[in-house]
Automatic annotation (TrEMBL):
Organism the protein comes from: Kryptolebias marmoratus
Function: Catalytic component of the GATOR2 complex, a multiprotein complex that acts as an activator of the amino acid-sensing branch of the mTORC1 signaling pathway. The GATOR2 complex indirectly activates mTORC1 through the inhibition of the GATOR1 subcomplex. GATOR2 probably acts as an E3 ubiquitin-protein ligase toward GATOR1. In the presence of abundant amino acids, the GATOR2 complex mediates ubiquitination of the NPRL2 core component of the GATOR1 complex, leading to GATOR1 inactivation. In the absence of amino acids, GATOR2 is inhibited, activating the GATOR1 complex.
Protein name according to UniProt: GATOR2 complex protein WDR24
Gene3D superfamilies recorded: YVTN repeat-like/Quinoprotein amine dehydrogenase
Catalytic activity: S-ubiquitinyl-[E2 ubiquitin-conjugating enzyme]-L-cysteine + [acceptor protein]-L-lysine = [E2 ubiquitin-conjugating enzyme]-L-cysteine + N(6)-ubiquitinyl-[acceptor protein]-L-lysine
Subcellular location: Lysosome membrane
WD repeats: 116-158, 203-245
Pathway: Protein modification; protein ubiquitination
Length: 790
């Protein structure tokens, strides 16, 4: 071990010394207990039951109490306690429901003394009386507590808590006849051992099971309890009504709690799961541990202070099969690593800032904030006591208020109230929400809604082809000068390739019907349709063709030029079916032969096949649909939603999620959606926008959110006869034994939809009540109440 500090404590005639040390166990430990003189510790678990000696440098195994070839379940221990008066006496709580006592003074190997098998389920806790030698108390999962006299063969008293299982029992250190018991239903009961018929007092200590309790060794009335609600509470039992005087919030369920000797306000806790550390708390400063022990690698199952008058040594056992002795000087002090400054924004934009008072006093040039600077004392201390106390730091809290007339969050409320999330088409919802954002002067949000409509709405149908089309108006169309063969592949034929042999020239044989369309006789506007033997991907090169050989030229009137047309799919109809290998025009062959880029021995001409043949105008159009699929935009929308959420505008993120629905739901993981929904619903409820919150929950695309309306709604029903609340499920009232769901009109039991008056509790079949109230306003049951159907 690296921590080698050594402490010696004088306790009367004896002295305790040692250091932080540990030893490996044979199996995980469930509980530990130390003897009165602090020289030995017993470790018990399902597969271990041993006694170790506490020497100055190490643990030394003294005795193994699991004897025999096949140990019985009596050795499987859930709890163990060493008697604080009789050093040779131990008691264990077995997982099979047995309470076993062990006498270490026996000469035989088997030290088992007595066996009590009165409990029907696992015994969770055993406790010796602090002064009475022969009195032993047990608490079991069966809900009973039993008091044993070790001089007898059976229990002398049985205490029934009329509740669920008992998790802990503890005798009072100062009151001879009193013990406390904690239960899984959250209650704590105080009993007098002389009155086993009824508890002295009972109170609800935690919202959930209470796993442990411990009486203060010095103060007679203080009882500490720990539960699954992650809280440690200290109760004052001396008052007429039990009073909670301190509360410590931990980070996990509290499994054990032990008061620290000689320190009135200190107690140690360990967790039942998740957290492996041991914490020592000063209950006057409940927000940060006083000290922390971080040695264990698994859940700590048992803690005990080595001596009842020594605050410097703590023993612990764990599921990691180790036994530790912790020295307090080696503990980690979380306060030394705590940040003394704090910053927080309020709901309406107010800013609170806490800082070390010495920093503020040293800043002579500090000027007050013009919007308002209110300073509150954060901590105040009396005269410091340097004995194991926190670092004494006083802080000041400054609050900077926003202008109350600015209404900076009005946009949130108005947006939530005016947004439409369902009931119309997707395009209409986007347009409406964009208009709302624009009116609230949020142009970016408005533009986002508009873009969503454009990207995900159904595209408009293409217009029908016009009979008279002038290509001189198509200057904005991207006619293709250079065209990749790979890009043309899908639209040009089954194999998507143009075949050409060596010594062959390429020639387009295009036949157009004269007079079918009008093309401007301007060489600058005409695209180049033929090329030399250049790169393969350059399909249209620099050779110019005579327009008279390809197109019929006519003049357009001014009115035709002014009219705008939509480019049809096929602007020119083929005059006849193109043959497989038609001959090219002679002048084109001559031009080709004269071209310096073509070798002279080229004798053959290769033309496009019928499938590969195409007109100039068909190439001038895109070879794919101009409308991208909606799925193309999903990654962009996902990033946009993340951007809004990171900026704090979860309202926009959730609204888009609901409006888009299945279009975007699968693109975002469920945990992220749930986080956004919960944040937005929390904001809506803070602003008391209950209807909007309910609508968001109802329209949620996340299953974890949709079920909120079902789990948080409770309907209380009164009996129509005795007017008392119905406690049992069904039709029969458990008080008057009458059927509560009888129709006041037909006097039959309503087994379907039931409607009732909230004023007199009478009702019946929906159709019967509607028909009755059409002709009469009085209750059909004859009670005289004026019922109203709304």
């Amino acid at each position: 071990m690296e921590k080698m500090s050594r402490v010696t404590t004088a306790l009367g005639s004896s002295a305790i010394s040692g250091r932080t040390m540990f030893c490996h166990l044979d199996a995980p430990a469930n509980a530990i207990s130390v003897c009165r003189d602090a020289t030995q510790v017993v470790v018990a678990g399902r597969n271990i039951f041993k006694i170790y000696g506490l020497e100055e440098e190490q643990f030394v195994e003294k005795l193994n109490l699991r004897v025999g070839r096949k140990p019985s379940l009596n050795f499987s221990c859930a709890d163990v306690m060493w008697h604080q008066v009789e050093d040779s006496l131990l008691a264990t709580a077995a997982t099979n429901g047995a309470v076993v006592t062990w006498n270490l003074g026996k000469p035989s190997r088997n030290k088992q003394d007595q066996l009590f098998t009165e409990h029907k389920r696992t015994v969770n806790k055993v406790c010796f009386h602090p002064t009475e030698v022969y009195m032993l108390l047990s608490g079991s999962q069966d809900g009973f507590m039993k008091c044993f006299d070790l001089r007898k063969k059976e229990s002398v008293s049985t205490f029934s808590g009329q509740s669920e299982s008992v998790r802990d029992v503890q005798f009072s250190m100062k009151d001879y006849f009193t013990f406390a018991a904690s239960f899984e239903n959250g209650n704590v009961q105080l009993w007098d051992i002389r009155r086993p018929d009824r508890f002295e007092r009972m109170f609800t200590a935690h919202t959930g099971p209470v796993f442990c309790c411990d009486w203060h060794p010095d103060d007679r009335g203080w009882l500490a309890t720990g539960g699954r609600d992650k809280m440690v509470k200290v109760w004052d039992m001396t008052t007429n009504r039990v009073k909670e005087i301190y509360c410590v919030q931990t980070i996990a369920s509290v499994a054990r709690v032990k008061w620290r000797p000689e320190r009135k306000f200190h107690l140690a806790t360990c967790s039942m799961m998740v957290d492996h550390n041991i914490y020592v708390w000063d209950i006057r400063r409940p927000f940060i541990p006083f000290a922390t022990f971080e040695e264990h690698k698994d859940v700590t199952t048992g803690i005990v202070w080595r001596h009842q008058h020594d605050p410097h040594f703590l023993l612990s056992g764990s599921k990691d099969s180790t036994l530790y002795q912790h020295m307090f000087e080696d503990a980690t002090r979380p306060v030394d690593m705590a940040n003394p400054e704090g910053l927080c924004f309020g709901l309406m934009g107010d800013l609170a800032f806490a800082v070390n008072d010495s920093l503020i006093s040293s800043d002579a040039n500090r000027k007050p904030y013009p919007g308002g600077d209110r300073r509150y004392p954060f901590f105040s201390f009396k005269r410091p006591n340097l004995t194991e106390q926190f670092a004494h730091v006083s802080s000041a809290l400054s609050v900077f208020e926003t202008d109350l007339d600015s209404h900076r969050m009005d946009w949130f409320v108005k947006t939530a109230q005016l947004y439409l999330l369902s009931g119309k088409s997707f395009a209409e919802l986007c347009d409406h929400n964009a208009k709302v954002a624009q009116e609230l002067k949020r142009p970016q949000v408005s533009t986002t809604w508009t873009m969503l409509r454009i990207m995900f709405s159904d595209p408009a149908n293409l217009a029908a082809p016009a009979p008279n089309l002038n290509l001189s108006k198509l200057g904005s169309l991207p006619l293709m000068n250079s065209f990749s063969m790979k890009e043309m592949g899908p639209g040009m034929g089954t194999d998507g390739r143009l075949e050409r042999s060596k010594g062959e020239s390429r020639q387009d044989n295009i036949h157009l019907e004269p007079g079918n369309s009008h093309i401007s006789n301007n060489n600058e506007e005409n695209e180049e349709t033929e090329g030399s033997d250049g790169p393969v991907e350059n399909m249209f090169a620099d050779v110019e063709l005579d327009d008279d050989d390809l197109y019929s030229m006519e003049q357009d009137n001014q009115a035709a030029e002014e009219q705008e047309y939509t480019l049809p799919q096929e602007a020119f109809q083929l005059r006849h079916e193109i043959m497989d290998n038609p001959s090219a025009p002679e002048h084109l062959q001559q031009d080709k032969a004269d071209s310096p880029h073509v070798s002279g021995n080229e004798a053959e001409v290769t033309c496009l096949t019928p499938i590969e043949s195409f007109s100039l105008i068909s190439i001038s159009q895109p070879l794919f649909s101009p409308h991208l699929p909606a799925s193309f935009f999903c990654p962009i929308v996902r990033e946009m939603l993340s951007y809004y959420a990171e900026q704090g505008d979860v309202q926009m993120a959730v609204s888009v999620l609901i409006v888009m629905g299945e279009r975007i739901r699968k693109e975002i993981d469920d945990l992220t959606q749930e986080h956004w929904y919960m944040s937005y619903i929390d904001l809506l409820q803070r602003f008391e926008l209950w209807n909007v919150s309910n609508e968001v929950i109802k329209l949620s695309t996340c299953n974890a959110i949709t079920c909120l309306n079902q789990t948080s709604t409770t309907l209380h029903i009164n009996c129509s006869n005795c007017k008392r609340p119905m406690s049992n499920k069904g039709w029969i009232c458990d008080r008057c034994r009458q059927c509560a769901s009888v129709c006041a009109v037909c006097h039959h039991v309503v087994k379907g939809l039931f409607v009732w008056c909230q004023g007199c509790s009478h009702g019946g079949h929906l159709e019967h009540i509607m028909n009755w109230l059409k002709s009469s306003t009085h209750c059909p049951a004859g009670c005289g109440h004026l019922c109203e159907y709304t």
